[in-house]
Amino acid sequence: MFSNMDVLKVYSAMARHAAENQKVSATNIAHANDPGYKASEVESFEAFLGRAMTQGTMQTDFKVELANTPTSPNGNSVNLEHELYKSAEAMGQHQMALTVYTKSLDLLRTAIGKGR
């Protein structure tokens, strides 16, 4: 019954993806005034999930690539508003993943008779 815990793996990967998004956004924001800096972005969770299913493992790394954003006259491509939005979106994704993960563990504990 409990041999296949894919739902926990998916939400664990979702939390890792949100954390990676936060890290990349923070790096982009830190370099917002650096001439010539090119903003990066993490692949979508859907793209990661498709790739992970093809490879048969959720322990694969997230692809980080250059963002397709306009460049300012000094060559910098960081858009602060966009980065702040992505950061807030990642926070919500992380919270959702942790909530579902925690509730799933609570359900399993209840099912085996060791509820909170």
Features:
two-stranded antiparallel sheet, mainly alpha, elongated
Beta-strand residue fraction: 5-15%
For the record, the count of structural domains works out to 1
Low-confidence stretches: none
The amount of helix comes to 55-70%
Mean pLDDT: 89
Folded structure, characterized:
The protein has 116 residues and is mostly helical. The chain has one domain. 59% of the residues lie in helices and 5% in strands. It is built from three helices and two strands, in the order αβαβα. The protein has helices at residues 6-30, 45-55, 80-111, and strands at 40-42, 64-66. A two-stranded antiparallel ribbon has the order 1-2. Helix 1 packs antiparallel against helix 3. The model has no long low-confidence stretch (mean pLDDT 89).
